[in-house]
Amino acid sequence: MKNLLEALLAKNVPACVYPSSVHNLNSAVIALARDEQKRFLLVAADSAAHLPEGFAGEAFELANGAYGLVCPLDAINAAALRQHFPWTAPRSLRLERTTIGCGDRLGLATIGQLRAAKNYQLSPVLAQQSMRELSMTNRTFRNVVDDTVFQVFAADYRDGYGADGDHLKNIPDIDIALDAGMPMITLDLSEVMNAAAGDWSDDEVLAAYNALPEDERKLVETQYSDQTFSLAGDVTVAIDAATARRCAVMYNKALAFSEEVYHHIKSRRGDEFDLEISIDETTSPTLPSHHLYIARELQRRGVIVSSLAPRFIGEFQKAVDYIGDLAEFDRQFRVHAKISKSYGNYKISVHSGSDKFAVYPTVGRETAGFLHLKTAGTSWLVAVSVIASREPALYRQMHRYAEEHFNDMLKLYHITADLSRIPNLDTLPDSELPALIDSHPDARQLLHITYGPILTGPLRQPFFAAMHKWEEDYAQALEKHFDKHFSRLGIPKR
Predict the structure, then answer these.
(1) Are residues 355 and 415 in the same domain?
(2) Is 230 left (phi over 0), alpha (psi -120 to 50) or beta?
């Protein structure tokens, strides 16, 4: 079989094969390869009749009647890989203890992420994108899944991975993600819950509460008003009558929508899905009493969630460590973790979780590793760091382009970067550019939120050309970066 690959490679020199991607399939061999411009799939067999079905590409006749295909990395060939190698397709991770959303806005990060993930007792969610990220990168959910399939195949990773349609707000968008084979849906309730009621006066809440149906009010008054709930470890959560009314006004509509979405996904995928509920897209932290109300009501409605993301105290800004009172975070997070264990036994999910090293010990300890952590932009920033190190002239172009589009991106992301604190790029030597991305908070946030303009504008082609050239550097940097995340969380090694 190796000889067949070598004969096919001879048609495309100079090119090389990813060693771990070589897989025999009956009388054929399949592998991922790359040349100086692109990656591609090689399919070779001892005869044209023995070529596996489903693959499409440029055909070559080889010696002794053998036959080969050089296939682009497109949807057709990704589907063929999933057909012949089912482990390359994403699956539900609802039974897995520790799940990490790795995120990959480039379609290039999976191999490096897996180098770190395979050393730990965790399950990675490798394909993870939101509608906002898709629009900012001109990708689709199908692109995201297919890009991951090729890299999982190249890495020969067979332990299973997830794919997350992230922060989806309506059923049509959910269906697009499901159609692309994404078994995880993160339901963002920010547009259906009444978050503003968190700041209303008691009289305003009471007026809205009295407009609710009688059966809803009766349930609130019998199940929540002036009740104290005992959790493990002698922890209690009290809900007075005013708080119970406020929770009903804030969340009942969103809870009903969660139930609708749950049954819709179940009708599409049976039990093979992971539903995450996101209530973190608010300006105010999720109080433990509110979390308990949501958890109990989801359980009462029969909505089984794999994970739930509260809005934690403090700030989880993009690209930088946790900002806030660590002692108070520890105290409140402990209660949130106990609520999740008591009502549904779902994983606590930490959004914007990359680079939050200060809180990782608490998160890992209080959940005992039963958690979901979302990262997205951190893999993009690792790529930017590689560019700063290897292609300083290109980095300078990216940095200036980011500054030009910074104010526009502030409409989409909440950060507190101050560009005046970033060293003058004109006087900064090339050797100091990587430190901007590796350790300067303001520069990290600047480049983090401007990925869209960079990836869709005039710098797209030179950026991806550089990333292809420095692919191995990127994989090594990702392995180191994610190893730091996993070890700080206290995830056991394999």
Answers:
(1) no
(2) beta
Q: Which amino acid is at 369?
A: G
pTM listed for this prediction? 0.96
Specify whether 166 is catalytic: yes
Cα 19 from Cα 150, distance rounded (Å): 14
Active site residue 6: no
DSSP string, 393-457: HHHHHHHHHHHHHHHHHTTT------GGGSPPTTTS-GGGHHHHHHH-HHHHHHHHHTHHHHHHS
Q: Which entry of 104, 276, 473, 479 is annotated as an active-site residue?
A: 276
Structure tokens that stand for 102 in this block = 């790795």
Whole-angstrom distance, CA of residue 207 vs CA of residue 165: 37
- The confidence band for 2, taking pLDDT boundaries of 50, 70 and 90, is low
pLDDT tens profile 204-215:
999 999 999 999
Q: Are residues 161 and 20 in the same domain?
A: no
332 neighbors 359 (Cβ within 8 angstroms): no
DSSP 371: E
The catalytically annotated residue of 147, 166, 297, 391 is: 166
Supply the pLDDT for residue 1.
Answer: 65
Last residue of a domain, one of 336, 361, 377: 377
pLDDT for 50 equals 95
Provide the residue range defining the domain that includes 399: 383-485
